[in-house]
Structure formats: C-alpha cells, structure tokens
Write a structure and sequence with these properties.
Largest sheet: 8 strands, mixed, barrel
CATH topology of the largest domain: TIM Barrel
Distance between the termini: 70 Å
Strand content: 15-25%
Structural class: alpha/beta
Number of strands: 15
Oligomer: single chain
CATH superfamily of the largest domain: EAL domain
Order of helices and strands: HHEEEHEHEEHHEEEHHEHEHHEHEHHEHE
Helix content: 25-40%
Radius of gyration: 25 Å
Number of helices: 15
Bound molecules: ligand C2E, magnesium ion
Amino acid sequence: MPEAALPFDEAERLLSLTRSGLLEGRANRRIKGVTELATRALKRPMAAVSLVTADKQVLRGAIRMPTAPTPRAHSFCAHAILQPDRPLIVENAQEDRRFANYPQVTDPKFRLRFYAGMPLRLPDGHAAGVLCALDQVPGTLSDFQIAILRELAETVEDIFAEQAPAAGERLTLLQELRRAASAGDFTLQWQPIARARDLQVHGHEALVRWTRPGGVPARPDDFIPLAERSGLIGRIDRAVLWAACTEMASLPDERRLSVNVSARWFGLARPRLPGLIAQVLASTGLSPDRLTIELTERVIVDNPDRALWELRDLKAIGVRLALDDFGTGYSSLSYLEAYPFDIVKLDKTFVRGLGANERSEAVVKAVIRLGHDLGMMLCAEGVETERQLEFLRIHDCDLVQGYLLGRPGRIRP
Ligand code: C2E
Ligand code: MG
Ligand code: MG
C-alpha cells in the first residue's frame, strides 16, 4: 500500500501547524462555512478541511464525512500536500494504484472513489493540510470547478491568517467574470505612448475595462490575475485583440497599437498565439508592423524554451514584441539578450524613483544603455511628473507613457 513521502520541510511544517492553533479548533465555524460552499459549488456530497499531522489527518468543517482521524499513511491529503501549488485530483481511487487499497476506498462503509484536494498554506508558507471534496462515485472537475476549488482554498488560507472570510465574494466575482468572458462584455481604453524627445504620439496601448453587474468597475489588477488562475484569460485576451485591432484598422491614419497578452498562452497546448494573431490581422486588414504585443517576463520564467520559439513565430508574422513591467520580477538582463524583444517597458516603480532615488536612477540609466546596445527601444511607464520626463529625455529614453502624457481613455479619430 503506497504511502505518501514526507514533505522536504516536514519538521518545520509540523512546528508551524502546531503553533497555528488550528489543531485546537481555532476558526472552526468559519471553516465550516467554506466547506459548505465547496459541496454546493463543486456538486459533491462530502467536503472538509483536513490538517495533516505527524501521523494522522484531522478534519475540520467536515460535511458528511466521518470525523474520527484517519491514519496519515492512508490519507489522500498526505499525498496532496506534496505538491503545494496544484490540486490533487483522483478521478477513480479504485483504479489508482496509489489509493486502491486504502480502507476508505475498500471499506463498504466509505467506498470513496473521487477526491479533489487543494493544499492549504499557513501564512509562513508551510502546507497545513488540504481543502478537499469527495464522492462515492468516480468523476472529474472542469477547469472552472478547479478555479472554484482554488478560490475557496485561498479563502481558507485567509481564515488561517485571520483575515475576513470572503468566500462568497470571491465566488461571485469568479462567476460574474465567467459570464462576462462568455459574452465578451469588456470595453477598451487607450493610453497614448509618446516619443520622449518631442512628445509626438507614437502609438496607443489598449487596456481592458470591465464593469461588474450593478455598475461597479473592477480593476484589471484584481480581475486579470483571477482570469489567469481560472483559465478565463484566453477568452478575454482574444476579445481584446479582436476589438483593439478592429478599432485601429477602422481609423483613417496608421496609428500603432499595443495589446497585452497573458503568459498563460505560452503554457497551453493549443491554441497558439501566433495563429490567433495572424488570423486577427488577416481579418481586420491591420498591417502587422502597427501591432505590438506586450508580454511580461513570466512568459520566459514559466516556459523558457516554448517562449523562444513562440516569440520567434510572432516576430515572423511581422508584429513587434515588448517586454512589459521590466523591473518588477526577476528582471534578468539575460532575457534582453536571449529573446527577440523590440521594446523594453520600464515599470512605473522605477520611474517613480527618478529625481528622488539614486538607485532607481542608476538602474534606469543602465537598462536604457543596455537596451540600446542590444538594438531595442526603451519605453518608460507611469511618467507622472515633468522631472521624471526630463530625466528620461536626458538619458535618451525613446518612449514615455503615463498620466503626464495622457490617461487611458477614448481614442480620437
Ligand atoms: P500594464 O500593461 O503595465 O498597463 C499599464 C497600467 O498602468 C495600466 O493600468 C495604466 O492605467 C496604468 N498607468 C498608466 N499610466 C500611469 C501613471 O502615470 N501612473 C500610474 N500610477 N499608473 C499608470 P490598468 O489599466 O489598471 O492595467 C493594469 C494591468 O492589467 C496592465 O498593466 C496589464 O498587465 C493588465 N492588463 C490590462 N489590459 C489587459 C488585457 O487586455 N489583457 C491582459 N492579459 N492584461 C491586461
Ligand atoms: Mg502593458
Ligand atoms: Mg506595464
């Protein structure tokens, strides 16, 4: 009977779980609220938060599950915590070598077949246990249901961290976003990108906007990450690409446009981004050299090899590539050399420091110089003051974007 291995940080993990107070029953009532939501939203009869101790799994908020602790050696959850960032889905435990002999599977009292568990982290990052849903019939979870499970797990983590529980709000947002993505219910705003030298408009960046039912605008920084986690981003990016290219192609002049696309495209088997972009360009009649695709370095960090050939395919179509938000993540200078970007967009956190913070200034100067040596254009984001603009001009930055030059809004024909 295969037993789960121990997590590499097992000793610290157990210490952290013991200190959390969860084993003494802290926050039980709020946890129960989430497991109830889980059974309804995932349409499974059983759910629980299990805490994995040294030798057993202790259930909290258990719904239609035996509350007596299960030995760790025979628990699904002990396997689930070994991969803390992904759910463990067991479609039919009876046919899965790892679990087929577990008493919970073989014992006619339980006869468990289906298991879906998302590991739960304590505020210090150690896995405490799992939010799981179970069933006596085999089954599977759709991508959307996996997204629900992840959202609910994050809510439990908020409870662990003693933050306000917001499971209902999270699910509502996710469901509204799904409806909007199906209906293509988004609008665009355009923000000008100007030449630093003379402030002539160089192009416009398309920024997606979404108004929630009830008229509340949602911030992209809130709903784009949710769309990425739930797999809805593909539909959103596609809608934005079509709308942005259609609008620009209809204008009488030859203005350039930039469109953001998610790194998630590069982790999917299909459909590939170059094919989609070629199709949009062909249908709208927009010339490829007017379109810049903005990507963050997550594309490279998550899928370094795939990124290289996919970015080359994009270049072959004739579009330009911009590395967005440079300076926020790993910001490895080697990316600039190894990947075929035309433009580097310096993140606004650096630009904010110009005229005030010598370190930011040193970094900006160095990146501009390096970018130029590698044949790339530099664009500074978030330019809000004359002082920042002046610095960027003196140091030969090519393009600027920010509230000083223009806020996102409608495009004038
Ligand atoms: P981004 O691509 O770096 O876009 C620039 C963001 O900075 C925009 O925020 C813009 O409104 C804001 N901004 C522009 N000038 C200034 C300034 O002077 N000061 C300050 N403080 N902010 C400024 P927004 O529209 O909220 O978008 C946030 C992020 O959401 C974008 O960052 C981009 O990563 C993502 N996003 C937006 N539209 C799309 C889309 O269609 N698809 C995808 N995948 N992501 C998108
Ligand atoms: Mg951008
Ligand atoms: Mg940016």
